[in-house]
Amino acid sequence: MWEEVLKTVMRLLTGLGMGLLIGAVIGIVSGFLRPFEEIARPILGIIQVVPPISWLILAIIWFGFNGAVSIFIVIMSVIPTIAICMADGIHQIDKNFCDMGKLFNFSRWYQFRYIILPSIGPFIMSGFKIALGNAWKTVVMGEVLTTSSGIGGQITQARLNIETETVIAWTVIVVVLYYCSVTAFSLAGKLKKRRQDAGNKKFVKVVSGTQGH
């Protein structure tokens, strides 16, 4: 069981990581460059509207029947969510804070860490939670239709053998894995928030010291 679970998790992490990276790049560029956003928004909308099964069939044509198909459809499901949330978060950054950072001659790293990142953080967290749920569904769906390995492959074998209890068991495992990943993400978010609060206190001290000077 653990071997098949590991195969699915590796496919999920690969697709999720690549989708996050590509989506973040598109979102950041869209957030700061309006002309690029006007081009990217319709394309992201098309990617969102196209049914996952259509991406699945195209991936089968391009990659054949293997684990790459599951990775591909995970990537396509993650990119629009992350890109749109990232761009919206950048649009919500308070310009007064940016002007303050320039006024006190903060470096770009300080501006990013203490002004930009806290502003877009909630949008990133929300987008990641949505992307994580979509990723679990799409990776298993891809395995069911394209490969005999992983959780999806085991569900296919159970279907062929008419083993209802096995299908239910693997489905329960997927649900448990999803909630485990969400819990781990939430704990990481709380830890990050504590560090962010400590960083904000440091930021306030820096600003106060600059004002005093």
Molecular structure report:
The chain has helices spanning 2-32, 34-49, 52-63, 67-91, 95-103, 108-146, 150-160, 164-212. The protein has one domain (2-207): MetI-like (MetI-like fold), CATH 1.10.3720.10. The chain is built from 8 helices and no strands. The chain starts with a helix and ends with a helix. It is elongated and about 70 Å long. It is an all-alpha fold and 213 residues long.
Task: Describe how the helices and strands are arranged.
Elements: H1 2-32, H2 34-49, H3 52-63, H4 67-91, H5 95-103, H6 108-146, H7 150-160, H8 164-212
Helix pairs in contact: 1-2, 1-4, 1-6, 1-7, 2-4, 3-4, 4-6, 5-6, 6-7, 6-8, 7-8
Concise overview:
This protein is an all-alpha fold and 213 residues long. The chain is 90% helix and 0% strand.
Helix content: over 70%
The gyration radius over C-alpha positions equals 21 Å
Strand content is under 5%
Which class of secondary structure composition applies to the elements? mainly alpha
- Could you spell the SSE succession in H and E letters? HHHHHHHH
Q: Kindly state the number of beta strands.
A: 0
How many domains? The number is 1
Largest sheet: none
Which topology does CATH recognise? Answer: MetI-like fold
Shape: elongated
Oligomer: single chain
Distance between the first and last residues' Cα: 63 Å
pLDDT average, as an integer?
82
The parts where pLDDT drops under 50 for at least 5 residues are: none
What's the CATH architecture?
Orthogonal Bundle
